[in-house]
User: Fold 2-aminoadipate transaminase from Paenibacillus favisporus.
Amino acid sequence: MGNLAYPSRFSNHLPPPSIGGTKSAEPEHVHLSYGFPASDLLPIRELNEAANAALQVARVDLLHYSGAQGPVRVKSWVLNRVRKFGLLAEGGNFLPVFGAIQGIDLTARILINPGDEVWVEAPTFFNALQSFRAAGAQICSFPVDEEGLQVNRVEEALQKASAEGRKLPKFIYIMPTFQNPTGSTLPIGRRRQLAQLAKDYDVYILEDDAYAELSFNGTTLPAVYSFAPERVIYVSTFSKTLGPGLRLGWVIAPEEIIQYMATLSLGSQLNPFTQEIVGELLEHYDFDRQVERLSDRYRSRRDTMIRALHEELGSEIQVSVPDGGFFIWVTFGEHVDVNAVAPLAHRRGVSFVSGNAFFNDGKGARYLRLCFSHCSEEQIRKGLRSLAEAYYSIYSG
Ligand SMILES: Cc1ncc(COP(=O)(O)O)c(C=O)c1O
Assistant:
């Protein structure tokens, strides 16, 4: 083991926290850090029935490399569902993956050569940063406001790089809908503008739409993909609607991209066993009703969190109010370092994710991310009381 030398691209950066963290042994602890769904809304009974049915019908085929009907059913269900977001794609544009994160990582693996640029939002999803760094990318960040990525800034940078004859980015990674961590959503004008830039400059967009189903006001915007299908690699997932442990998501992209990605699967089909069960579930399941249940619950938890934040810390913070998804982004004064608050808060039984994890340059100590989807309203209120106590023990208000 002592001789194991990692390539320098791994040792330059401390690994950021994993997507969900691990479950704590302390039952009273309030985990506002976990990006988890509400456990009691996950369809465990329905999956149990679907698993039984799939085992009875497909029998031993479930255990063969190509499975039975599952992969075909999942593919056609997803291709139909994503029409809701304006995606009109064919079978050749689709690849099942073990979660949106694998779609992100496959994109990095097929497009990035060490030293290539990748442009991201600031702040952005830390596991995506980890993947781009591991591929050897030079990461360049662009600010996000209440309306998501500031596309004008991207346009200026593309113009400048192009005028100076510099290399353009291999792709631009964005979360246009209920962004992680800010909760912001890119309006339709910016989506169109970004799609046009991708076409004009021949740059790919990696569009991560993991939270798109979870809208709290019933509105749905067309994906960036819908404006430039030849330039967008779209990733999404069942993690936020059926459960992250299924590890089932998808990529929808130009056929050439899908073929490169499929090559990296080395001839093997993604987990046919899981697809068989999920395919069976989706045949009979009222997915719209599930989305409605989740959205109703999360809307109520978001409101409770916003209220509690105003009550406990109102004069000290600015708070994002997302129209969907899992997260609230909290901004403190410039003098505040949330990393000093974190251990005191942890001792008082509450955890959050410090802003630094979401910035490529490690800055962002005045921000923190709170997740409202997983904890009960009572836990949210209790957790924010503890967080405020920890904060005021350092910054006396
Ligand atoms: C923006 C975003 N993309 C992707 C993922 C991961 O999705 P999956 O579980 O499908 O890999 C997450 C989960 O936290 C996320 O927040």
Remarks:
- The domain at 10-43+289-394 is CATH 3.90.1150.10 (Aspartate Aminotransferase, domain 1).
- The mean pLDDT is 93.
